[in-house]
Design a protein that fits this description.
Blueprint: H1 3-28, H2 37-49, H3 53-66, H4 73-86, H5 90-103, H6 110-122, H7 133-147, H8 155-182, H9 186-200, H10 208-221, H11 225-238, H12 243-252
Helix pairs in contact: 2-3, 3-4, 4-5, 5-6, 6-7, 7-8, 8-9, 9-10, 10-11, 10-12, 11-12
Length: about 260
Amino acid sequence: MNMYHIIKQIGSKLIVLGLLLALASCAKEKTISDLSFDELNGKAKEFMDKKKVDDAMAYLEEIITRFPDSANIGQYKLQLADLCFESGKYAAAQALYENFNEFYPADQQAEYSKYKSILSTFNQTLRTDCDQTDTDETVKLCQEYIQNDAYNKYRKDIVDIQTTCENKLINKEIYVFKFYVKHGNYDAARNRLKYLKDKYLGKNIAREPELLYLECKLASKEKDTKTLEKNLEKLMTKYPKSDFTDMAQALTARRVFIF
């Protein structure tokens, strides 16, 4: 056998050996579903330290899915919720925070979790002319927080968020009111104003001048002089320096103001 064939045979054997070693290596490599709780936890911490959020989330999700009855599983849910929040995945974050509060209401992190749940929902709210479901949900969560006497750390922020959302809901109703007025549907417009006054005015009196002006505007469109004068008088008495009072006065002078 010449040297060429000897080298060829050796080369072939080395290739086969390499393939066997590669296969052995693959056989030994574990997938995420093969890892133990401690291994998953270690990987999650490793990726969090490296700021590899998506990788860390994958391992935390695996822990929560496979070990739901493990001690301190709530803390892993909270860690995952925080990572979702930081990644802008607010819907997933909100669901995890609410799950934490449902199952661990007495935990020392419960107030924090409720606060972050509110922020997650608030961050999903849309502009005035869009659906306000998330705005309504934010108000509901704010009320839950405020009604819990044990919660105080974030109370000022929560009150501010609730006020912002309530104003947003008022603005949506005004947007719809203007739509009805523009299209001559005055009965529907009147019902919107009544709904606004009944639902929001008691706790948001600062919007009263605007609503009184809108009533004047509607009365002007309907040529209802009596209602127009009544609301104008109320504006001039209670809010003499308001811009809405000036705008309402202009209606009687036949000046045009654009909504």
